[in-house]
Amino acid sequence: MRVAFVIFEDLTALDFVGVFDAVTRLKTMKFLPELEWDICSFTNQAVDGAGLIFTPTKVGESLEKYDIVIVPGGFGTRRLANDPDFIEWLQTAKNCNLKASVCTGSLLFGSAGFLIGKTATTHPNAFEDLKKYCKVVDKRIVDEGSVITARGVSSSIDLGLYLCEKLAGYEAKEKIRIQMDYQTC
């Protein structure tokens, strides 16, 4: 199973790191030893709003070879949703089995056409922006089968654990949650 974690300029670091930490534990804790991942970007590096620099392992390569594509949010999504080159690159994920986003990453999925006829969520400040692509609901996680969206930045860990359960079962998710010392509300 191959996962693409997408990064971009002006992402929100926790949107990326929260889901990354939980999902990669599927391999490091030996629940899915065959799990592989890449950090994928359209550019040579990505810097979050506070100056944290992320370096991708794959740049500009098609996302079609991945089973799962995970996209964070951040202020950069507003610009990228209108960037035809970036959206064309993201659309190479159209046939991936599962696409998941955190926060305003759903705006990128909407712009790429992945939310047509679907329900999704995002940060409450972006509900209006997301409405042009799909029906918007105020939920922590929305699972539409091949597309899963998560609400705001802190939902990144929730999404990561949700994906762990979806991919490896409840027991694996619980062991990862306990190892992360994450308490659900």
Topology:
Elements: E1 2-6, H1 13-28, E2 36-41, E3 46-47, E4 53-54, E5 58-59, E6 68-71, H2 76-80, H3 84-90, E7 98-102, H4 105-111, E8 119-120, H5 127-130, E9 135-136, E10 141-143, E11 147-150, H6 155-168, H7 170-179
Parallel strand pairs: 1-2, 1-6, 2-5, 6-7, 7-11, 8-9
Antiparallel strand pairs: 3-4, 10-11
Helix pairs in contact: 1-6, 6-7
Task: Describe the protein in words.
- The chain has 185 residues and is α/β, with parallel strands linked by helices.
- It has a single domain, classed as Rossmann fold.
- The chain has seven helices and eleven strands.
- Strands 5-2-1-6-7-11-10 form a seven-stranded mixed beta sheet, with helices on both faces.
- A hairpin with a 5-residue loop joins strand 3 and strand 4.
- Helix 1 packs parallel to helix 6 and helix 6 runs antiparallel to helix 7.
- The chain starts with a strand and ends in a 6-residue tail after the last helix.
